[in-house]
Amino acid sequence: MQRDEQAYHYGVIRRAIEVIDADGGDLSLEELAARMGMSAAHFQRVFSSWAGVSPKRYQQYLRLGHAKALLHEDLPLLETAHAVGLSGSGRLHDLFVRWEAMSPGDYARRGAGLTVRWGWFDSPFGQALAMGTEKGLCGLAFAAEVGPEAAWEDMRARWPKAEFVEDPDALRPRVEAAFAQKGETALHLIGAPLQIKVWEALLQIPEGQATTYGDIAQAIDNPRAVRAVGTAVGKNPLSWLIPCHRVLRKGGGMGGYHWGVPVKRAMLAFEAARTETDPKAVA
After folding, report:
1. Is 10 in contact with 125 (CB distance < 8 Å)?
2. What is the pLDDT of residue 283?
3. Are 137 and 155 in contact (CB under 8 A)?
4. CB of 205 within 8 A of CB of 84?
5. What are the tens digits of pLDDT across the range 178-206?
6. Average pLDDT, integer, range 35-55
7. On the CB side of 19, how many CA atoms lie within 13 Å of its CA?
8. Residue 244 catalytic?
9. Which of 20, 83, 188, 242 has a beta carbon 3.0–4.6 Å from 135's, enabling a disulfide?
């Protein structure tokens, strides 16, 4: 899929989610296309290009029952996540990710002396704001629900004393590797120590599976810190790459999502479809 098509395709999927939610039942290809004001053939092409499965199958991924099923999967990697130090390596999709954590002292300086390059990119989930240092990507935000200005201000405020330089070309290879889900990219985790532990635990959740805030707290050997874990998940600066969208409420509910619940649902369904159509995509 060409990058200039991705924002359009996500817009179609976003509208489809709204229609599916409003209907509350299974819609055929023809019914769904008609409700969206598109021909069945055109809608099928766009939908298949983005999701890789039929609209009927995709509707199953959007239901609460699917979210609950994700929580029933075995997560052996989470059981050992607490053994991961403040730097390490992991595998996410077919994308090999290397990450390095900023020291607590550097974080306390709120980005002073740090140069952060940034740029806007098309993504499978709409317009994305990417940020990075010389060590790797440090920020990835999605503007489809919150808007570009709010996404920029949110990310900019995380490291208020850093120098921000617009330079999409410097970030492009890493961003393209991230969204193509192949190759290798580097991440620079900039956060408080507890946040980094939580984010590293998130990196252990395989694609096509999910966990809860309580399970994350257990994984970092701090079972009473469920609320703090929830805050750290919400502060994740590298959405999609650090898969906070895979964290659900204990009962299987979606919970919140910093960049909008429709984006979270689209990400989970996108991954479920990808796992179904390509077993090698499972991390």
Report:
1. yes
2. 39
3. no
4. no
5. 887 777 788 888 888 888 889 888 888 87
6. 83
7. 23
8. yes
9. 188
The tokens for 126 are: 């709409």
Q: Which two tokens stand for residue 207?
A: 């694609």
CA–CA separation, 177 and 92 (whole Å)? 12
- DSSP secondary structure, the chain, as one string: --HHHHHHHHHHHHHHHHHHHHH-S---HHHHHHHTT--HHHHHHHHHHHHSS-HHHHHHHTSHHHHHHHHTS--HHHHTGGG--SSEEEEETTEEEEEEEPPHHHHHTTTTT-EEEEEEE--BTB-EEEEEETTEEEEEEE-TTT-HHHHHHHHHTTSTTSEEEE-HHHHHHHHHHHHHT-SEEEEEE-S-HHHHHHHHHHTTSPTT--EEHHHHHHHTT-TT-HHHHHHHHHT-SBTTTS-GGGEE-TTS-----TT-HHHHHHHHHHHHHHHHH-GGG--
Largest CA distance in the chain: 58
Nearest-angstrom CA–CA distance, 171 and 5: 20
Beta carbons of 92 and 207 less than 8 angstroms apart: yes
The phi, psi pair for 164, rounded to 5°, reads -105, 130
Residue type, 246: R
Q: Which of 14-18, 74-78, 266-270 has the lowest mean pLDDT?
A: 74-78
